[in-house]
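Reopening: C-alpha cells for the uridine-diphosphate-N-acetylglucosamine complex, inputs below.
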Amino acid sequence: MPLKRQKPLAAVLLAAGKGTRMKSTLPKVLHAVAGQSILGHMLGLLNAIGVNKTVVVVAPDQNEVAEEARRLGASSAVQEQQLGTGDAARAALPALEGFAGDVMVLYGDHPLFTPATLEKLLKARESGAEIAFIGFKPDDPAAYGRLVLLANGDVDRIVEYKDASEEQRRIKFCSAGSFTLDAQRLGTYLAGLDNNNAQREFYLTGIVDAARKRNLRCVAIEAPAEEVLGVNSRAELALVESVMQRRLRERAMENGATLIDPSTVWFSHDTQLGRDVTVGPNVFFGPKVRVADNVRINAFCHFEDCSIGEGAIVGPYARLRPGAQIGRDVHIGNFVEVKKAVIEDGAKANHLTYIGDARVGAGSNVGAGTITCNYDGFDKHFTDIGRNVFIGSNSALVAPVKINDGAYIGAGSVITKEVEGDALAVERSEQRTVGRWAAKFRERKRAEKAAKAKSKE
Ligand code: UD1
Ligand code: MG
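Re-run output (same inputs, fresh job):
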C-alpha cells in the first residue's frame, strides 16, 4: 500500500541527458535492471513513498521514455535543448504550476535509492530546512559536485568538480543530485540561475546560492554510497544489476526461502516466493513469476510469467514459459517445457516433454517424450487432457484434440481424434516377431567372415 502523505509531494525526474556512454539506440532509462526499466524502478520508488504527481523530463527525441512514463502513471515534459540540469528542471515547471506542496528532484538514472533514504530526505526538509539534499561519501569522489558545509553542518554551497578549488576538491562529501523543497520556490530559484561556470551550463545545484542569499537553511543527509550508483555505461548497468540482485536474494531469504547457492539465482524485481521454497543453483526468474509455499525448484530452471502451486517439485532443467500454471503437488521434471497450459493438482510430467496450449487434468501422468503438437504453421490449437489420464511415452497429441478422464494412451501413439473416458487409444503398427531370426543372422555373418579369412590364406 503506497503511503499517504500529510502534505502533497510531487517529484521531478531528470532524464533528458544524452546517455552517450551507453552507446545504445535505447534511451538510458529504458534499459532494464532485474527485468524492469530503470524508469520503472524509480517510479515504483516514488510511488512507495506516496508521491502524488511525477513529471519526467525527456529530450525531444525521447518519445519512448514519455510513453513509458505515461504507461506507469507519470506525466512528462520536454527539455528542448540540453543546457544543463538546472534548465532540465525548468522544463518541469509548467506541470507544477499551482502545486501547493513540496517537490523532490531526482536524476532519472539512480534506481538503487531506497524508500528509507528518501524518507530521511523528507524528514530533513520538515525539520525547518529550505532545501534538503542527498549527499554521499563515495570511495572515489571523482568528478562529483562537492557539498561545502558551514561550521554547524548545514550546506553552504555545492561546487561542481570543474569549478572547484584544490581545497574544495579534497572534500569527501559529494552531492547525489537529489533534493526537496517547496514546489513554488523551485520555480523562483530556477529563474535566477545563470551559466557562468566552467561548463557554460545551467547548474541545478545553483539553487543553493539563491536560498543562501535569502539566509535560508540548506541541509544534507548522507545516503549509503551504494544507493547513489548511477547508470552511465554498460559496466555501471551491470554493477547496478549486481547490487539489485543481491538485495532481491536477501529479500527472498528474509521471507523464508532457502537459496542453496544465492549468487547463482537471478531474480526479477517482482518475483514472489512463498515460505519454505527451496531454490537450487542456477535458476532464472524472468518477470511475473509467483511461487507458492513449500515448492522445491531444482537446479538449472528458467521461468517467466508463470505460477507454481504449493508443494510442487520442478526441475532440474525445466522451462516454464508465459502462461504456465502449475498446480499443487505437481511434478515437472528435467527437460520439460510448459507454455500457456494449466497443469492441475497432482499431475506429473517428469521427462523430456513439451506441453503448450493445453490443460493436463488433476492426477494425470504424462510420459517421457510426449509432445502436444499445438501449431500447424498458422494457428495454435488446444489439447485438453482430462483427469487421471495416462499418456504413454513418446506420444504426439495433435491439437485440437481431447482425451477424456481416465483414458490410457499407448506409448508411441500419434493421437489425432478424441479419446473417450477410460478407453485405451493406441496408434502404431502391430509388432511382428520373427522367431530365431537374430540367432540365424549371426550364424550366417560369422560363416561369411570365416570363409573370407580362409580365402586370403
Ligand atoms: C550532477 C550534479 C553533481 C552531482 C552528480 C551526481 C549538476 C550540475 N551536477 O553532475 O553535483 O555530484 O550529478 O551524479 O547537477 N540532464 C537533463 N538535461 C540536461 C543535463 C542533464 O535532463 O541538460 C539529466 C541527465 O539525464 C541525468 C541528470 O540530469 O539524469 C544528471 O546529469 P549529468 O550530466 O549526468 O550531471 P553530472 O555532471 O553527473
Ligand atoms: Mg552524471
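The radius of gyration is 32 Å. The mean pLDDT is 97. Marking as resolved unless the reporter disagrees.
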